[in-house]
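sry for the spam today, last one i promise. struct tokens for design, 335 residues
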């Protein structure tokens, strides 16, 4: 009878199974090399320039739209002084007549102090408006979507207050719209040229980086790896490189705009900020501007990835042509 609690002799014990350790497979392409680092730098620089141009165009468009909206939402009634004219009554009468029209929201009469401040850059301080033949102004705020009938308003003012002149800023608005469209068109053209230069640079830089790894493609193809597998491996590798480069360039451009906007907000009412705002407007590009920068980063990454895939497929095609007909190597396009 066999005692189950008693251990079996060593010779009769079942052999132990050797534990198998599977080594993780190394990547087909090296994680970093000279070609990859150079391509990353090129992508970062082109992404920075493209995002910077995109943000500048968005900033100019927003500034021009703000100017146009600010001018088109107001009209001005100018009353010229004459002998025997009660200026205060004429100002009140002109304002009340303008507000009778549908589309006129409210009116503001510029007092003596406000008029004097307008003339300070030319005539200095301490002016007595009553001693000068200075026209007085009434500012009427209008509804931009449903503006009043300017022709009828002008005729009524001419009849009731002959010294009044209505300026609807139509000439200035037309000129500003033309300037804004021209500026945006020029900026869009520059942005298009930057994108074309970026596309060509990224394509040639990617092909140059792939040319240094051509031997890897040849070895993988000779040992029987399918073309789709090889293209996928290279595609993953260059996607990582392009994402790093595009993210670095895009974040640098976004940080530059954010810092410029922060500086402008912290230095309001200073000569430097006023001059900068007068020339370039605000440096805030808004949510759509940052969304455009993110979209540019994605486009650059996809462009680099597709270029890598097409280049690998073309390289495999050339290898097959060489193997089938070695005499055709001279006619192939070398990378």
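last one done:
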């Amino acid at each position: 009878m066999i005692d189950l609690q008693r251990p079996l002799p060593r010779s009769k014990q079942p052999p132990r199974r050797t534990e198998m350790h599977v080594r993780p497979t190394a990547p087909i392409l090296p994680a970093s090399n000279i070609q990859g680092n150079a391509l990353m730098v090129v992508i970062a620089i082109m992404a920075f320039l493209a995002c910077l141009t995109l943000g500048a165009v968005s900033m100019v468009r927003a500034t021009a739209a703000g100017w146009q909206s600010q001018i088109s939402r107001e009209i001005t009634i100018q009353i010229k002084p004459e002998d025997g004219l009660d200026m205060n009554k004429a100002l009140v009468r002109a304002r009340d007549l303008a507000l009778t029209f549908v589309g006129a929201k409210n009116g503001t009469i510029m007092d003596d102090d406000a008029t004097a401040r307008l003339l300070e850059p030319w005539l200095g301080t301490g002016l007595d408006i009553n001693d000068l033949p200075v026209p007085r102004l009434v500012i009427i705020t209008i509804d931009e979507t449903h503006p009043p009938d300017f022709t009828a308003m002008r005729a009524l003012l001419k009849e009731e207050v002959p010294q009044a002149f209505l300026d609807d800023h139509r000439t200035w608005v037309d000129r500003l719209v033309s300037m804004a469209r021209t500026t945006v068109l020029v900026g869009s053209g520059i942005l298009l040229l930057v994108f074309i230069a970026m596309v060509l640079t990224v394509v040639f830089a990617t092909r140059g980086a792939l040319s240094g790894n051509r031997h890897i493609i040849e070895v993988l193809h000779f040992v029987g790896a399918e073309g789709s597998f090889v293209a996928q491996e290279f595609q993953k590798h260059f996607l990582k490189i392009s994402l790093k480069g595009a993210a670095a360039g895009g974040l640098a451009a976004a940080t530059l705009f954010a810092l410029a906007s922060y500086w402008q907000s912290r230095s309001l009412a200073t000569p430097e900020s006023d001059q900068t705002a007068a020339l370039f407007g605000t440096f805030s590009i808004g949510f759509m501007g940052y969304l455009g920068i993110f979209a540019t980063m994605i486009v650059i990454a996809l462009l680099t990835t597709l270029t890598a895939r097409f280049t690998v497929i073309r390289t495999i095609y050339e290898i097959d042509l060489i193997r089938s007909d070695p005499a055709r190597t001279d006619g192939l396009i070398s990378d």
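Residues 331-335 have pLDDT under 50 and may be disordered. ok im logging off now
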